[in-house]
Amino acid sequence: MKVTGINGKKEMQKKLRVGWFTFTCCEDSTIVMTEVMNEHWEEWKRLIDFRHARVLRTDNTLDELDVAFVEGAISSDRQAERLKEIRDKAKRVVAVGACAVIGMPSSQRNLFDESTKRAIQFLVDRFGQSEKVRSVKELVQVDAELPGCPMSEQKFLEVLEGYLKEFNIVH
Amino acid sequence: MHKIDFDLSLEEVTKIEGAATLSVKVREGVVEECKFGIAEYKRFYTQAMVGKPASALPQHLARICGTCSNAHIMASLDAVEHALGIVPSAQTMVLRALTMDGLMIRDHALHLYLFSLPDLLGKDSILALDENDPEEHQLLHDAFDVKAAGNHLSQLVAGRSVHAPMPVVGGFLKIPDSAGIEKSRRELEQIRPAVLRLIGVYGKSPFTLISKTNYVALTANPCSFLQGDLCASNVACIREEKFMEHLSHVVVPYSQASAYAFQGELYRVGALARLNLNKDALKYRTKADTAPYLARFPSDNAYDNNVAQAIEILHCIDEALELLSSHSFHTETPQKVSPHAGEGIGVIEAPRGTLYHKVVLDEKGVVTHGDIVVPTGQNQLAIEWDIKTLIEQWIKEGKELENKKALEHEIEQLIRAYDPCMSCAAHFLEVTWDEA
Question: Do B110 and A31 touch (CB under 8 A)?
Fold first, then answer.
């Protein structure tokens, strides 16, 4: 992987501005990402600016992003607003894992029978959950999807590599 | 007494598994309110498990939590096999022990290196460690080497670190190949010095918060994360199927998770509890190499959970090395499941503490009811209590409470020392909430 640099001089390495966000899910793809990191951390340290990744840092900033990876389904209006804010700030949005891509299994309550729905309704209300749990693309435009429970490591690396090229971080 | 009025609200605790919130209210120097809430939205797994065939249940319940998924699989297999009267073979138990070793190594390493180590070094992130500083350079490389060795052991034995596909009801779908075993043994031996460095780093940490509570853990000798009786620091040990009789559910209205008391008292589970109750059962090689640090247990310092986790990584390396060297694995078809009605309980020690699964099956082997109690739910009240104690100490010592950033940072460090897992804690509906 060739690093971008003008005249090959010691210049500030341009980095891909990445956000990693998690909504309603088991965070399995986050764990897979931290395991993929075992073999790629040196390259990522050089090429990626994790602007917002709660799993990796405390001092997070939601500002302009090249790529937002979004894991999990959307359970509430509050989460939906946050997702729209991320969409507004990110040039590319990637839905990560089954819950983000198709809603399931986090949206399993959508499929409960009426009596089970009635039994859980007080909790749905208490914590301000929306009537239905939704996938990411039901709410915002998605540029790429990483399906699977968890996501495939290989597919994730392919998508990341594609964005590193698209944003001229590597050639 | 300081006449201090103070409000603090943490919307999002970082570098933990999942989402948590905290709100604190101090009036005239007294902590009037300290609410530690689990902010993950409920996903209603105890409802969704109803109607599933028993054989599909472990994989379904793995989805409660990514990082603890293999622990949920082990607990669910235990519960289902008890319900169906299946006794796993000796080889299956060895492979399950190895699955737990891989899980503990990679999960504790995730917590100790990626979540908590930046606190110790005054950094925001593991990736912010300075490669030009010899100690930080070493720890940075150690972090990913140790995680990778745990990840590879999990892949070798269970097929994957997350939602492992190979362990099934009655056995394993695949046995480890000899080339993989050799590679794993080499890697595990190679990371031992790194883990000894890690134990040293946490062992010398100055962070202290003394909090006297009861401790509960599944306890056996030799040490096992899968078998034994439930022991507590102040009562006689009980059999795993009696565990729920000693727990009381505590409603925490601002948290999406259920909290628990053990025999009516605050208690803690996890690595600190395990070492406080059963350190003598660790591997001989582990004990020999960590004697100065092991001497501090039993400990009431909440931050010693970090030291305990680091020592457990070494124990799991030593156990895995021993098991991989002393067993030749042979192909074994998983035992046939003949569906029938039954009730089963499975209790194991997950990385963060005691994990309880209960399942009730009808005559077709289909789930009609289930219960799950996760470690973070059990630790929830102790975490909240310790945060309150920490703030009271700040007030007593006359520290600048107005310096919110510093206090928030210290509170986050304390929460991280518990290594809470919010996905697990918010997995289900506790029916008694309705009555509350």
Answer: yes
pLDDT in tens, B94-105: 999 999 999 999
Can you tell me the distance from the alpha carbon of B280 to that of B292, in angstroms, rounded to the nearest whole number? 14
Helix ranges, B228-374 (H):
271-278, 284-294, 304-326
Q: What is the ipTM metric for this complex?
A: 0.89
Query: What number does CATH give the domain B45-435?
Result: 1.10.645.10
Residues of B with Cβ-Cβ distance to A150 under 8 angstroms: 66, 162-163
C-alpha B55 chain-centroid distance: 25
List, as one string, the DSSP characters of B269-290.
Answer: -SHHHHHHHHGGGS-HHHHHHH
What is the three-class DSSP state of A50? Answer: strand
- What is the DSSP pairing of strand B214-219 with strand B171-172? unpaired
Cβ atoms of B233 and B298 closer than 8 Å: yes
Question: How close are the terminal C-alpha atoms of chain A, in Å?
Answer: 7
Side chain identity, residue B289? D
Mean pLDDT for B259-288 is: 95
Q: Tell which of B43, B155, B251 to mutate to test the A interface (max A CBs under 10 Å).
A: B43
Closest C-alpha to B193, from B141, B125, B136: B141
pLDDT digits (tens, 9 = 90+) for B184-204: 999 999 999 999 999 999 999
Give the type of residue at B82: H
pLDDT of residue A170: 94
Annotated binding residue B316? no
Domain A14-158, CATH homologous superfamily name and number: NADH:ubiquinone oxidoreductase-like, 20kDa subunit (3.40.50.700)
Alpha helices in A6-113 (DSSP H): 28-47, 77-89, 97-102
